Amino acid sequence: MPKNISELELNRARARLSGWTLGFAQATADELGFGWKPTPTAPNTYRGLKAAFDLSMRDGRPLPVYSENTDPVVFSESNANIAYRFVHDCHHVILDYSFSSKHEFELARWQMERLRDAGFNEKDLEWQLFYADSVGQVLLYALAKTFVSNQLRFALDCVRNGMEQGLALEMNRSKAS
Q1: 57 vs 54, 94, 128, 133, CA distance in Å?
Q2: Exposure string (b/e) for 115-142, b if CB count within 10 Å is 16 or more?
Q3: pTM above 0.90?
Q4: Per-residue pLDDT tens for 4-54?
Q5: What is the pLDDT of residues 125-170, one digit of tens each?
């Protein structure tokens, strides 16, 4: 695992990851016939998400997507993080995955496969950041019932030190706050 990541390397990886995510979100929107609308009042239960998704499918209205806590993240821009949430939320419903830790883990694995399909692999910094962000956050919540306070710092901790150590560092931070 790379201990030293230059700022230039990190910025390039974040930009490529953002580009892939924005493209994936647009392809999802094109396939479904609706886009997304950032809002702080997006559904926060599976039942609420399914109802909003069904309305979007019925009349093409944008799916409300949670707009808070979008920085600092593994993407180079906050709109890519919101686009990621759109794809994530849509596929919760499409794949019939609840918000349980088991289903969140399955969805994270499914998302990693899409990234692999796009040509990224475990050696790529983009893959490592996305793995820490998607799988790592699921594991953190399953273990500690807490959310990551700084997604980029958490992902970099995981990339530099391994998932286990990244999780331990984040759990220690959440205890201290």
Answers
A1: 5, 11, 33, 28
A2: beeeebeeebbbbbbbbbbbbbbbbbbe
A3: yes
A4: 899 999 999 999 999 999 999 999 999 999 999 999 999 999 999 999 999
A5: 999 999 999 999 999 999 999 999 899 999 999 999 999 999 999 9
